[in-house]
């Protein structure tokens, strides 16, 4: 008790000096969290558990009025250099010529499933995925989206070595293409942060999400764990909520191989970007308590750090050591994030980095709060 009282009395009395104490505290907390996150990735090897496995795969793609994307994707899927695989295209209530295009694809490897309507109580994306999974002839399922592009004809082959007897889930990485513009830079940085956090957690045996644009799991595991129940009506969650259901500390692998990447084009308009992010962030309310707590601690520490720095900076109540310390923190983060981005095959712009880190710390959490209250969120109309 006496020690606590002495400590409180020793605190500075001026408000900005108290805030400076908070600033130093949150610099330490944020740096500690960053170090804990990136350390497993710096140690992680991209060498799979086995290099001789080659089980058959069922590649599943769901599409809703995406005929132009399918025209670009199908040649890349059919060109995959792998021993045994099938391609399942699930057309969700398509009215744009997707059905006619898929009928023109002449390949015994391709199975097209048409979904004319979605039953009540089911999200369209999850219902379409379920139809594709049920129709799959192979145990291993590999999923991507119609607007994605495998970076290599070894995409399927890159997942095969990770399919050991104990493995039930393989997490892939799916960057967005590096394009000019603020929205593209925000998307690229947020995607890099997301990839860093979910792959780091998986390396530590605590996987909590993947990306539906590049993920593989066993058909038997999907059915054994009840598929998308009880969140079949939730918009989104076909990747992160499913991962939280089926992952264990020992059944999940991460595919870091450069041939495994799938790229997507970022949204180019603010309306589309906000709609996409709201849909993604709205799923967070359904996360497991431990995952939500970890997200809250990381986001609040990051956000408070930036707010303290900006307040001290623009109120001119600061010392040079504050700017030096914060600048050093940003520099160190930038160096390590650049290294990890290179290892993951993801874009990273050093010039944009400080601004992107500020936006990620303050703007995206505000979008997350907004997503908690927005109703009528849809996958696609």
The major beta sheet can be summarized as: 7 strands, mixed
Sheet-strand content, in percent, reads 5-15%
Count of the domains: 2
CATH overall fold name of the largest domain? Spore Coat Polysaccharide Biosynthesis Protein SpsA, Chain A
CATH class of the largest domain: Alpha Beta
Strand order of the largest sheet: 3-2-1-4-7-6-8
State the fourth-level CATH superfamily of the largest domain: Spore Coat Polysaccharide Biosynthesis Protein SpsA, Chain A
Cα(first) to Cα(last) distance is: 61 Å
Protein name: Glycosyltransferase
GO molecular function: glycosyltransferase activity
Keywords: Cell membrane, Glycosyltransferase, Membrane, Transferase, Transmembrane, Transmembrane helix
Enzyme class: transferase
Any descriptors?
9 strands; Spore Coat Polysaccharide Biosynthesis Protein SpsA, Chain A; two-stranded antiparallel ribbon; single chain; alpha/beta; 13 helices; 381 residues
SSE inventory with pairings:
Elements: H1 2-10, H2 15-43, E1 57-63, H3 67-78, E2 85-92, H4 98-104, E3 110-115, H5 124-135, E4 140-145, E5 148-150, H6 155-159, E6 169-171, H7 182-203, E7 215-218, H8 219-224, H9 240-246, E8 252-254, E9 262-264, H10 270-282, H11 289-314, H12 320-344, H13 353-373
Parallel strand pairs: 1-2, 1-4, 2-3, 6-8
Antiparallel strand pairs: 4-7, 5-9, 6-7
Helix pairs in contact: 2-7, 2-11, 2-12, 3-4, 7-13, 10-13, 11-13
């Amino acid at each position: 008790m006496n020690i606590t009282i002495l400590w409180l009395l020793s605190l500075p009395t001026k408000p900005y000096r108290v805030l400076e104490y908070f600033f130093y505290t949150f610099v330490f907390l944020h740096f500690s969290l960053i170090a804990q996150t990136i350390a497993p990735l710096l140690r992680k090897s991209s060498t799979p558990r086995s290099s001789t496995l080659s089980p058959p795969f069922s590649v599943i793609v769901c599409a809703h009025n995406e005929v132009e994307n399918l025209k670009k994707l199908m040649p890349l899927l059919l060109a995959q250099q792998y021993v045994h695989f099938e391609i399942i295209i699930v057309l969700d209530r398509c009215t744009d010529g997707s059905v006619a295009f898929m009928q023109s694809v002449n390949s015994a490897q391709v199975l097209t499933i048409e979904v004319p309507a979605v039953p009540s109580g089911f999200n369209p994306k999850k219902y379409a995925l379920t139809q594709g999974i049920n129709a799959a002839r192979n145990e291993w399922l590999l999923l991507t989206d119609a607007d994605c592009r495998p970076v290599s004809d070894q995409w399927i082959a890159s997942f095969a070595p990770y399919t050991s007897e104990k493995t039930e889930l393989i997490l892939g990485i799916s960057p967005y293409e590096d394009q000019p513009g603020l929205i593209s830079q925000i998307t690229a940085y947020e995607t890099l942060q997301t990839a860093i956090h979910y792959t780091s957690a998986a390396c530590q045996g605590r996987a909590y999400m993947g990306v539906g644009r590049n993920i593989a799991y066993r058909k038997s595991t999907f059915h054994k764990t009840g598929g998308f129940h009880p969140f079949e009506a939730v918009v989104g969650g076909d990747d992160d909520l499913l991962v939280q259901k089926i992952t264990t500390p020992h059944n999940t692998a991460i595919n870091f191989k450069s041939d495994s990447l799938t790229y997507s084009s970022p949204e180019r308009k603010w309306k589309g970007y906000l709609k996409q992010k709201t849909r993604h962030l709205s799923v967070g309310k359904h996360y497991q308590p431990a995952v939500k707590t970890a997200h809250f601690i990381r986001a609040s520490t990051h956000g408070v750090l930036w707010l303290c720095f900006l307040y001290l900076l623009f109120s001119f109540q600061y010392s040079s050591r504050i700017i030096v310390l914060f600048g050093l923190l940003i520099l160190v983060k930038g160096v390590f994030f650049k290294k990890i981005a290179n290892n993951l095959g993801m874009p990273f712009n050093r010039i944009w980095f400080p601004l992107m880190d500020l936006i990620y710390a303050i703007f995206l959490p505000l979008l997350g709060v907004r997503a908690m209250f927005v109703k009528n969120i849809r996958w696609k109309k």
